[in-house]
Every structure is written in C-alpha cells, then in structure tokens.
Amino acid sequence: MSIDLKQDHFSLFGLPRSYALDEAALEAAWHGLQSQVHPDRYAHLPDVDKRRAMQWATRVNEGFQTLKKPLARARYLLELAGVDVGAETNTAMSPEFLMEQMEWREAVEEARDEGEVDALEQLHMRLLRHARDVRGELARQLDTDHDYAQAADTVRRLMFIEKLQHEIDEALLALES
C-alpha cells in the first residue's frame, strides 16, 4: 500500500473537488484508508517503512480533518484555486457586515455581563442558523458560480461567526461554573 502524498485531499478520498460534500462517503473513505495505512499494520517492518506508514496515516488524518469541517474545506478549496483568503491581511469587510458584527458582539457582551444564560443560548442558536445560511452562500460561490474572490470574503465572515460562537460557548461555561 502506498499513498501519493502529493495528491489533494479530495483525490485521496476519491471525492469530487467541491464544497458540497457527501459526509458519509468521506467517513467511509477515511475508515477504509485508515485500515490500510494504520502504523500498527507496519510495526513489524523496518524503520523506514514504519516512518512511511506514519506519513500516510498523518496525511489521511490531516485530509479528513480538513474536509470534514466546512470552514477548513472552503479555505482548502480556495487554496487549491490559488486564492489567498487573506485572513490576517485583508480586514476589509462590507459596512453591513461590520454593523452586524458589532450588534452580535454587543448582544453577547450584554447577555454575558448580565449573566443571562437563556439569552446567550438564544444568540448561539441564531448564530448557528446564520452560519448555515452563510455556508449555503459559500457553496453557491464555490461550486456553482466559481466566484473565488467573493468566496474568500464569505470565508472571512464565517471565520468571524465561528469565533463568536466560541466566545458564546466560553461565556456559557463561565456562567455555568
């Protein structure tokens, strides 16, 4: 068994290169590859073969983790298309998004400061629905329109949403303890 370490994650798992992904097919392909490349299967072989098996297993796990997470998958697709998301350098966002971001942050701060667990949970649910809608936009931009510049903007929006979800989770944990 050998794996071409240069092939992209989609090819590795025998999946089409698209944002919309059959998660069950990804999971099945991952399990199949894991059973083939797991380092324990090569424990009796020379060190060079053990290292190669470790490389294969690492590559399979890295690919699986990238493809199973919608944000990571989008970033990876953009990378394959030669588009830099510019997460660290491109902070230009639409005024509408910036206003929305401020409103979300203020609502979270207010609920956290007032110890309102129910309000934080409601914000979390609203944010989950919003993230689902944004991922729908992203699927259209990447798979249908092939509008990678717009998709990069949407990825940055989704990064903000995920960060805010994490902040809400942390606030809920702090209030519950």
Give an account of the 3D structure:
- This protein has 177 residues and is mostly helical.
- 73% of the residues lie in helices and 0% in strands.
- The mean pLDDT is 92.
Distance between the termini: 50 Å
For the biggest sheet, the summary is: none
* Count of DSSP-assigned helices: 7
Shape: globular
Q: From N to C, what is the helix and strand string? A: HHHHHHH
Blueprint (SSEs and pairs):
Blueprint: H1 9-12, H2 23-37, H3 47-68, H4 70-80, H5 95-113, H6 117-145, H7 148-176
Helix pairs in contact: 2-3, 3-4, 4-7, 5-6, 5-7, 6-7
How would you describe this structure in keywords?
about 180 residues; about 75% helix; 7 helices; mainly alpha
Short description:
The chain is mostly helical. It is 73% helix and 0% strand.
